[in-house]
Amino acid sequence: MRSKRGYNYSTIQLYGLVILRVLIGWYFLYEGLAKVLTPKWTAYGYLMDSQGLFAPLFRMIAENPGLLAAADFINIWGLTLVGLLLILGLFEKAGYMGAAIFLILYYLSHPPLLQAEYLLPTEGSYLWVDKNLVMLAAVVVLALFPSAKRIGIDRIIYKNKSK
Amino acid sequence: MSEKDINPNEKASNQEHAHQKPVSQGRRDAIKALATVPVLGAMAYGVYSKRKQELRNITSADMFHFNSEVSPLTPLSPDGKTIRLGIIGSGIRGKQLMIALGFATPQYVEELKQANKQNSSDNRYRDFREQEDLKVVITAVCDIFDVHAEEAIAAGANIHREGLNGTYGTAPRRYRHYRELLAADDVDAVVIAAPDHWHGQMALDAALAGKHVYLEKPMTWTVPETYTLRDGVKKSGIIFQLGHQNRQVEAYSRAREIVNKGLLGPVTLIETGTNRNDPNGAWVYPIHPDANPQTIDWQQFEGDPERVKEYMDYMTSAGLARYVGPDPRNKFSLERFFRWRCWWDYSTGLSGDLLTHEYDAMNQIMQLGIPTSASSSGGVYFFRDGRTVPDVLQTSFEFADRGMTLLYSATLASQFKRSRKIMGHDATMEVGNTLTVTIDPRSEQYRDKIDNGTIKPGEPFYHYVPGKSIDAVTSATELYFAERGLLYSYVDGKRYNTTYLHLREWLECIRSGQQPSCNIDRGFEEAITAHMGTRAYLEGRTMYWDAEKEEITRG
Question: Which of B142, B427, B470, B551 could make an SS bond with B546 (beta carbons 3.0 to 4.6 A apart)?
Answer without folding.
Answer: B551
